Amino acid sequence: MNVVKQKQLCFNCFGKHRVTECKSNGRCQNCHRKHHTSICKELQRKSEVESPQPEAAVFFSSTKRLNADVVLKNAIAPISSSHTTTDAAILFDEGAQRSFITRKLADYLQLESDEIEKRSLTGSGGSKNRSLQQLERTTV
Description:
Elements: H1 2-6, H2 41-49, E1 57-65, E2 68-80, E3 85-91, H3 103-108, E4 115-121, E5 131-137
Antiparallel strand pairs: 1-2, 2-3, 4-5
Region (Disordered): 120-140
Organism: Dreissena polymorpha (Zebra mussel)
Protein name: Peptidase aspartic putative domain-containing protein
């Protein structure tokens, strides 16, 4: 919330405008008010009252490209498998159909591959430079 206020971002979509001017129909998934779920005060209070969760350091990365601010939600949080637990850097992408981890982390967590998937992947910024990748998949 401090970063959103400091950068004067919209509480709802993190755009460079006021929440009163926000054209997004998105609402908090917890209380249904016009702010992003990740900054919901009720959700924070509720999680503090219920059981204490593992600590996670949450960061927002910001970069300027073509005079547009881009805010990326990320965190360092404990993750675990049935074999071990470790802290990992996480980049949140609510619009993605898949989550990815590095081979090094998968090996450390001793995750077993279910199957190989062929996926056409592209980086951020559009559909140029697509590449067909064969990726190992696991379900946890």
